[in-house]
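Weekly structure sync, notes
Attendees: PL (lead), two postdocs, one rotation student
Agenda item 3: pending single-chain targets
PL asked that the sequence for the first pending target be pasted directly into the notes so everyone works from the same version. It is reproduced below exactly as submitted, 243 residues in total.
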Amino acid sequence: MYSDRFKQFIEMWQKDFAIERSMNEKVCVDRDGKPIPWYTYPAIEYISQFDYSDKKIFEFGTGYSSMYWAARAQKVISIEDKPEWFKKFAAEFSAPNWQMRYCDEKQGYEDTILADKEKYDVIVIDGKRRAECAANAVKALADGGMIILDDSDRINTSQEYVQAVKYLRDADLLQVDFYGFCPMNNYTKTTSIFFKRNFNFDSLYTVQPINGLGNIWSMSRKERKQFFRKQEYPLPEENTEVK
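Predicted structure, written out during the meeting:
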């Protein structure tokens, strides 16, 4: 028998995080059906606070994250090396500010980021040869920017990830790890973000952090009281200075 509190917990994951749909349909989408990256939910919520309207994004790896970034950024370039996925994404995704580039076996996958001699505000490492990609990402990172290394918990079993993290930390980037569940999976992983020491992205909001998904402080006082009436513990004290 499940307790009422546990049922509320499951309902929150189903409704607010759309995790049931994500698992069953194998799609990375939020509760409104909009694309989200295959990062951990804590990482997604964190990066979603910032304004990317004047930012350039580069992705090693293509997917739902490409449309997530395209909806927010000035320019997005995504590299894909698998022909079947390139064909699939070309048919399913489109955005005027997004370019997907195919890199075959003869090309230097990790060197694609250096081709245009541009600097990028956000660089995502989520494809193959992650150590080599990390080394070149450092060269192409704009001042004040960040590098996202997904699946970074593989460092415990993979020398490739050991080397990737070493390249990023040796560049004096600040590492912050976001542990947790992610879309489509029924297990946890880690997404790490490496920041330039002068990271300077503007927030979309007047305060930081904002209330995350499932947070009771995004409810009205009446809704919070109704929520806690179903609980086995008392309503926490509220700060009446901020409504």
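Discussion points:
- The first strand starts at residue 56 and ends at 60.
- Residues 1-16+214-243 form one domain.
Action: rotation student to compare against the earlier draft before next sync.
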